[in-house]
Design goal:
The complex is a heterotrimer. Chain A is an all-alpha fold. Chain A has one domain (about 5-60). Chain A has 2 helices and no strands. The radius of gyration of chain A is 23 Å and the shape is rod-shaped. Chain B has one domain (about 30-45, about 55-190, about 200-250). The chains are: A mainly alpha, B mainly alpha, C mainly alpha.
């Protein structure tokens, strides 16, 4: 472990703000990239289910 | 060997087969991505030694460099997929090219943002017209161009072919842009401090970097497969197998 | 005829000869034909010629008003301002390339003509350059005076624009062809083409700055010439393919 204590790890010798800002936003962006397709798929399934129900009702 | 590749290439062309195969691959790639990225990040952030000049702000390299590498290779992948879609009229290739664009744009933005943030403690300014940051910015405009063109057409087929042409034109221009921006930078910029100093990095510094790059590639594979599968469901929703699949899940 | 013994063969040869007469115009004649037609059309609509020049002049005069009228300051930014204004003027005039032909349907005739589409696109780009690029290049030195451009910069400004504006028209033709079929293009074409214009801008301004500082200029112009040749060969092909897509899009 390069740093003695966890608080020093957070502080990163004064550069903590920049390091955590960079990693923080990157993590958020990567997470968005994973969540979007999953939600999109859920939408597709719901849409298909609604269409199916409508067809059953009419047929 | 060649015959099996050709057979595999054509089978990948069928959306149904592509959907099933990637369905089995996603969990493996996802596990690899999560493992590699967490290991690489903790290794790079907590265990790797700090740079003797820049101190700890150097650790941003472990997210900046993989994102920059991904940004460029995704553009090439998009152009190749677009080219295949254009030449062999392969729907799956068009869908892969369409799914590449947003991931590439995110990677470029991450590389740009982390590069700028890294510049603050190193050069004292949020934005520096450093050659690599500038060509990364232009690459971002190229990505936005492809995404905007992709959504400008009504019929999905011509949208795919138009953005395939734009990404092929773009990929021809990437080296030209990089060369002219590098030249422009050396003309105007006094020799500023480069992001990573030239002395070769000791292994305990570049090892986590290698792990992160591979992890990012796995991440790219996972998100690409997920997005392409959604595209398949959307574009093939009139086929039996998609309707069956969706109603099963519904 | 010696081989008249076989009437079927004679008839076959006869038909082939007639087909060749049918295709009367060679590609060169088609090229010049389109060129004349478009030039005639453009000179009937004066505004297409004047607008880019007006925009170029007004855009350049904004900088002394917006930043500062001091001569030594303007001399520094003169090359860049002139080049950026010329680039934007070209960009704005690009939709005149295919838009009217798309509207009146002559673009379809062009695409289905037997002649190679790249040749036809080249004639359209040449018209666009003659109508926009060339006048901009001729006007630029005059505006250079207004911007206090140092004396030894004028020759190279003219030369770099002479080499650069055709490249801008050629690369711009790709963007125009990609977006010709769309209803609301607006900023889309700009977004597509500007990244591709940046190398031309860098070397164009670079050559003028090098000339002003008394440095060698041959290298810059050589690279601009190379970019022009590459665009001359590749851009019509890409634009042709883009036209085919936009038409049946």
């Amino acid at each position: 472990m390069y740093f003695e204590s966890f608080s020093e790890f957070l502080n990163m010798g004064g550069h903590g703000l920049y390091v955590w800002m960079a990693y923080g936003l990157s993590a958020v962006l990567l997470a968005i990239n994973v969540v979007l397709p999953i939600m999109h798929k859920g939408q597709l399934v719901k849409e298909q289910a609604r269409k199916l129900r409508r067809e059953q009702k009419t047929s | 060997m060649w015959k099996t590749f050709v057979a595999w290439f054509h089978r990948m062309g069928s959306p149904k087969w592509f959907y099933e195969i990637t369905g089995r691959w996603i969990p493996w790639f996802a596990a690899a991505a999560v493992l590699l990225i967490t290991v690489g990040t903790t290794w790079g952030l907590a265990f790797a030694p700090a740079d003797y000049q820049q101190g700890n702000s150097f650790r941003i390299i472990y997210i900046h460099v993989p994102a920059a590498i991904l940004a460029q290779s995704i553009f090439f992948a998009m152009a190749i997929a677009g080219g295949i879609g254009l030449i062999w009229k392969m729907k799956v290739a068009d869908m892969v090219a369409k799914s590449c664009a947003p991931i590439g744009a995110t990677m470029t933005f991450i590389a740009l943002f982390t590069g700028a943030v890294w510049g603050k403690p190193t050069w004292g300014a949020w934005w520096v017209w450093d050659a690599r940051l500038t060509s990364m910015l232009i690459l971002l405009f190229l990505y936005f161009g492809v995404i905007a063109l992709q959504s400008a057409f009504d019929s999905k087929q011509s949208a795919a072919r138009a953005s395939a042409i734009l990404s092929l034109v773009g990929v021809v221009n990437i080296p030209i842009i990089k060369y002219s921006v590098d030249w422009w930078n050396t003309l105007h910029q006094p020799a500023t401090f480069k992001l990573t100093e030239k002395p070769a990095m000791p292994p305990e510094m570049w090892m986590p970097l290698l792990v992160m790059v591979i992890g990012f590639y796995c991440f790219f594979a996972v998100v690409l497969m997920m997005r392409t599968r959604n595209e398949i469901l959307e574009r093939e929703k009139r086929t039996q197998w998609v309707q069956g699949l969706l109603s099963e899940k519904g | 005829m010696a081989n008249d013994a076989n009437p079927q063969l004679a008839h076959e040869k006869q038909r082939v000869v007639r087909r060749e007469d049918g295709v009367r115009t060679s590609s060169w004649r088609a090229f010049t034909g389109t060129l004349k037609r478009d030039l005639l059309l453009v000179f009937r609509r004066r505004s297409d010629i004047v607008n880019p020049l007006l925009f170029f002049t007004i855009a350049v005069t904004l900088f002394p008003l917006g930043i500062s009228p001091e001569s030594d300051f303007l001399a520094q930014i003169a090359a860049g301002v002139l080049w950026v204004a010329a680039l934007l003027a070209t960009l704005l005039s690009l939709d005149s390339l295919f838009q009217q032909d798309m509207a009146d349907g002559s673009l379809e005739q062009l695409v289905i003509s037997p002649h190679p589409l790249a040749v036809m696109v080249l004639s359209k780009v040449l018209v666009h350059w003659l109508v926009t690029g060339l006048p901009l290049t001729l006007l630029a030195p005059l505006l250079g005076v207004m911007m206090f451009l140092p004396d030894d910069g004028f020759g190279i400004l003219f030369l770099s624009l002479l080499l650069g504006t055709p490249t801008l028209s050629l690369v711009g033709a790709i963007g125009a062809a990609l977006t010709v079929g769309l209803r609301r293009t607006g900023v889309l074409m700009t977004l597509l083409i500007l990244p591709l214009y940046i190398p031309v801008l860098i070397f164009g301004t670079g050559s003028v700055i090098a000339a002003v500082n008394g440095m060698a200029v041959a290298g810059h112009l050589a690279i601009m010439g190379a970019m022009f040749m590459t665009a001359l060969v590749l851009a019509p092909l890409a634009a042709g393919a883009a036209l085919r897509i936009s038409l049946n899009g």
